[in-house]
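Case 213 in the screening queue. Each case pairs one protein sequence with one candidate compound; here the compound is iron/sulfur cluster. For every case the pipeline is the same: read the inputs, emit a complex structure as tokens, and attach any notable structural observations.

Predict complex for case 213.
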Amino acid sequence: MRLKDRKNIADLMLEAFGRAFPEASCSLDQDAPERLAVRGILSAQCTDVRVNIVSKELFEKYPTMAAIDEAPEKDIMDIIRPCGLYKAKAASIKAFAHLYEGQWGGEVPRDTDSLMKCPGVGKKIANLIVGEVYGIPAVVVDTHCKRVMYRTGITDSKDPLAVEKDIMKVFPEDSWISLGHEAVELGRTYCRARAPLCGECPLSSFCARRTGD
Ligand code: SF4
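Case 213 output:
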């Protein structure tokens, strides 16, 4: 599809999203920037609802990054086990707390390159953090966003980094943060991985409706 046509779909998509999901926002708890970052790490292959429950327990026991930095990794593992991938996630959380307390001087970095120096923090989580914490335009391409952008014809790729680049070419910068949340809403509600509800979908009149994820 030509760039012009993709831009046209992007414009229509933003209009439809505005009407369908005016309240779309990040569903992770956001009581502190560094805690949001930890929740981002926990969110890989886990629901936001579960992440919020599990992180509440984690922060009750270890309220600060200094406390997490000092905590036994095994104890972190035991607490976060319900989120899955708990060994890798515990190592990432410990690494994040250590960087935060040391190299980062008690602040969450504003740039994705610094954040991605932490093991387990990829572009998706880094974009989530800079977008939600600092309002810096960044697109969070999760599994829902990836699927929606492919099916609608915004991208030909299924690689998250390439999808992100294609999004950035056709959507205005000031839409990037909310776009990720809106795409998640659409993916959960209509554009499900299996049996999408195209007949009821607010994008139905202009979507390319390509099959696959
Ligand atoms: S019309 Fe169908 S394929 Fe297109 S975004 Fe909606 S649910 Fe997904």
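Case 213 observations:
- The chain has a mean pLDDT of 95.
- The CA atoms of residues 47 and 209 lie 26 Å apart.
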